[in-house]
Amino acid sequence: MISIALVIIFLVVSYIIVEYEKHIPKTLVVVNITIISILQVIWTVAYMLSLYLYDKSISRLLYMIAGCLTVLVIYKKIGNISYWLISNLMICPLMSFVWIQIDNSPFDGFLGSVGQWITPFAVLVINIVAQLSIWLLIRVHKWINRNNL
Question: For residue range 42-70, what is the model confidence (pLDDT) as tens digits?
Answer without folding.
Answer: 999 998 888 888 888 898 999 999 999 99
